[in-house]
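Before a colleague's protein record goes any further, I have to sign it off. Would you go through it and say whether the fold makes sense for this chain? Take the sequence as given and treat only the tokens as open to question. The record follows directly below this note.
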Amino acid sequence: MELKEILVEAGFPYDEILYRFSGNEGLLKKYLLKFPQDPTFQELKHNVEMGDYVSVETSAHTLKGVSANLGFEKLSEICAQMVMAVREGENEKITPLFHIAQEEYDAVLQCLKQID
């Protein structure tokens, strides 16, 4: 299956993502395949489990940016909500939002497993 087909089937805006990579599909593929090794999600998980909300804000903000650049808009939006919750002192929202982020992160990883 072609990269475009994989991403479109998963609901990701292929053309928009490719544009961010100057039309270079090889470069896009390289960064997509690196995403599962990025430690940011595991750091976010650890920070949520520890109740370290200052670090939650940092790791959620980082993951928000990485996800947005790769076209993972749902994951990026959930991370943005986590950042906002911390900044507004609404820490009770963090764990439920993290569970939603976990589901979306897992869906992204499932999609990326199809790329060879």
Helices lie at 3-9, 14-20, 25-34, 40-50, 53-69, 73-87, 94-113. The mean pLDDT is 97. Residues 94-113 form the longest helix (20 residues).
